[in-house]
């Protein structure tokens, strides 16, 4: 991972080693947005419940996404010591702070999807 960007300074989005760019790469995926949205709406959920609420995600991809979000401090993971263990996830305060920006991107996509579809299906210069 690149050097840390001092607080108050902006990273260089065009530098692949920039921590800001690396974080944007990690939080920019559709599964991250879905996990954040589901947990923001539902609160703490078990792994199996998250999986049910996210059609199309594989077990492996969800597991990887959750591990990444825990490592980044966006989710808290709680394990009930039963057999088999029950694993619960919830947003941390840092994770909750990401919900509004992701909601704004979703709203933009919903508002402009027809325009994007039209541009994709209309031949010629734009």
- Which residues form runs of ≥5 with pLDDT under 50? none
Question: Could you give the order of strands across the largest sheet?
Answer: 1-3-2
Class computed from helices, strands and strand pairing: mainly alpha
Q: Enumerate how many helices there are, as a single number.
A: 5
Please give the share of residues in helix.
55-70%
- N-to-C order of helices and strands: HHEHHEEH
Calculate Rg over CA atoms: 18 Å
Q: Give the biggest sheet.
A: 3 strands, antiparallel
Shape: globular
> What's the β-strand tally?
3
Strand content bin: 5-15%
pLDDT averaged residue by residue = 90
* Termini Cα gap: 39 Å
How does this model look, in words?
The structure is a single chain. This protein has helices at residues 19-27, 30-42, 47-53, 59-71, 93-121, and strands at residues 45-46, 75-80, 86-91. α2 crosses α5 (93-121). It has 126 residues and is mostly helical.
Question: How do the helices and strands line up, and which of them pair or pack?
Answer:
Elements: H1 19-27, H2 30-42, E1 45-46, H3 47-53, H4 59-71, E2 75-80, E3 86-91, H5 93-121
Antiparallel strand pairs: 1-3, 2-3
Helix pairs in contact: 2-5
Key terms for this structure?
single chain; 126 residues; mainly alpha; three-stranded antiparallel β-sheet; 5 helices; globular
